[in-house]
Amino acid sequence: MSQDRTLQVSATIDAPPDKAFALLADPSRHPELDGAGMLRGLESGGPVTAVGDEFVMRMNQDGIGDYTMRSEVTDYEPGRRIAWAPSIHPPGSLAHLIGEVDPSGHTYGWELEPTSGGGTRVTHTYDWSGVTDEGALGLYPRVTEEQMSASIAKLGEATR
User: Fold this and answer.
1) Does the reported pTM lie above 0.85?
2) Which domain of life is it from (predicted)?
């Protein structure tokens, strides 16, 4: 499903929601779940336990190289929902590559719904509708639906 500034994919994995949620709430495990191949490892923070918690992740992308992102948890319901909003860390550290734009305002979200067979229906949402700097909109989306689907598949593999 694709909307103006939102990508969303869903799939079912063979693990209960609490097991999947435990991985999503532990940023040190996120590189294992990364279908886009950008995450290099946790620099600080985590596991997360509430809205407002933060973690900093080491990243790498073609054309950008190595950098870090600070994420703030924006939604947190154990076993059910989790989301975070990344921002460049420290602020302005990529200005030499992207200019003086503010690319903040996007979120990665996960919703987990138990299935009758003991698995989990996972809905992964990437939403950049909160980006307010018009000059930054050309940077989005940073991931594809295929990469997001791969993240759900990796979540299923990591719960085994």
Assistant:
1) yes
2) Bacteria
CB neighbours of 140 closer than 8 A, spacing ≥ 6? 5, 103, 106, 128, 131
Pairwise CA distance, residues 8 & 15, whole Å: 20
Give the CA distances from residue 59 to residues 29, 38, 43, 62, in Å, rounded to whole numbers and listed in that order.
Answer: 14, 5, 10, 11
* Lookup: tokens for 94: 């990529």
Those residues whose C-beta lies under 8 Å from the C-beta of residue 18, and which sit 6 or more positions away, are 78, 79
| pLDDT band (50, 70, 90) for residue 1 | very low
Give residues with Cβ within 8 angstroms of 94, minimum separation 6.
64, 67, 88
CA-based torsion, 31, 105, 84, 16: positive or negative: negative
